[in-house]
Design a protein that fits this description.
With 293 residues, the protein is an alpha+beta fold. It is 24% helix and 21% strand. A four-stranded antiparallel sheet has the order 1-6-7-5. It has a four-stranded antiparallel sheet with strand order 2-3-4-8. The two termini are 30 Å apart. It binds a DNA duplex (16 and 16 nucleotides) through helix 6.
Length: 293
Amino acid sequence: MPELPEVETIVRGLRTVLPGHTIVSVRLGKTDFIEDPAALAELLPGRRIERVERLGKFIQLQLSAGSGAKHADGQMNLVIHLGMTGWLGVRRPEDPVAPHTHAFFELEDGRELRYTDIRRFGQIRLVHGGNMAAFSERLGKEPLEISASEFHARLAGRRARIKALLLDQSIFRGIGNIYADESLWQARIHPARLAARLNSADLARLRKAIRRILQHAIEDRGSSISNFVDAEGQPGEYQQRHRAYGREGKPCFRCGSKIRRGSVAGRSSYFCPRCQPAPRRARAMRNAPKPRG
DNA sequence: ATGTAGACTTGTAGAT
DNA sequence: TTACTACAAGTCTACA
């Protein structure tokens, strides 16, 4: 489910219902995706949720320092990554429990914050208040906030394919496969172009495309491919505005050519072969994976 | 520095 | 109908 717009949608939903409430207990199912399961039950009860923030694709629940000896470690953060199929939301205890729900954080008012994740590619971890800045610094810039000069500087001279760099969370935080392809289509840049070979007009178009697409996707509450729903359980709408992603063989909205699919940076990549001309040089584009065996 | 394949895991769609 | 394959919003590691 979750790239920047989907995570932002979840965060906005949680922000209306979580701050001010206190975690009273924790129940866990499968824990292989949790950094330190025992620490959750030990350190979370008694802490109040102060804020809900998004750091790229991570969700940060900022918790109070709590009280008593076991909370002498000060302010704490519950940091959650949704992986491919994660979901986080608040339900009443009597509400049906979705399959693959692996964490329940019970609140003082009886409700519970639930984490559901079919594939368990997600992540749950605790980060001490004092370590949060270092955690955030390992991530790149927010694409909705980055200046033109910084955007250019981060890509200048890089010989990697532009799509690989857009997906690199240490360069920009929050962009994933869908929004990389949508942004490159909007900016008319082939995903396999080398960043170093893009001129400033290309880069300016790309930055604006990313901003515009992410903003629109947030307004539409994300893209519901397969199983994404927001914190209230409602699907997003942005998948109806996709111009490239998932549209192999369908006509380009600009020129009518058939959208193609290839593999770039190890991910399926959708692009218009006419609007997004392939780089001349090398074997920049591999064919889509073929059946093996 | 960069690219690729494979790994983690479960479900679903599609071809046979 | 059943069995099988490819693929999926993400990221990490090993190896070239």
